[in-house]
């Protein structure tokens, strides 16, 4: 449902017909690590994340998975081990 408390006009998973079900009905403001992210919205002088109700919890375990301002490193792909005898035979055969 659409949030009617803080993040007006933003679809929120915590919003129900009875009101906001997250932490007493209020989202937490963003932390310093969130600065520069495109998911931040200013509401009444405070800044809130449009995708997470508790941005600090996202940064506790490492990088926030919603962060648009941080370039994520791609995982290193391990190359398959090649048997040296087979490699020599393939080279000799002209493959």
Characterization of the model:
It is built from two helices and four strands. The protein is an alpha+beta fold. The longest helix is centred in the C-terminal third of the chain and has 10 residues. It starts with 14 loop residues before the first strand and ends with a helix. The model has no long low-confidence stretch (mean pLDDT 82).
List keywords for this structure.
95 residues, alpha+beta, 2 helices, two-stranded antiparallel sheet, 4 strands, elongated
List the helices and strands and how they pair.
Layout: E1 15-16, E2 19-20, E3 40-43, E4 46-49, H1 55-60, H2 84-93
Antiparallel strand pairs: 1-2, 3-4
Quick gist of this model?
The chain contains two helices and four strands; from the N terminus they run ββββαα. The protein has 95 residues and is an alpha+beta fold. It has a two-stranded antiparallel sheet with strand order 1-2. Strands 3-4 form a two-stranded antiparallel ribbon.
- How many strands, what sense, and barrel or not for the largest sheet? 2 strands, antiparallel
For the secondary structure, the number of strands is 4
| General form | elongated
Distance between the termini: 60 Å
Q: Give the uncertain stretches in residue-range form.
A: none
Order of helices and strands: EEEEHH
Mean pLDDT, to the nearest integer, reads 82
Strand order of the largest sheet: 1-2
Structural class category: alpha+beta
Strand content: 5-15%
Number of helices: 2
- Helix fraction by DSSP (H/I, runs of at least 4): 10-25%
Rg from alpha-carbon coordinates: 24 Å
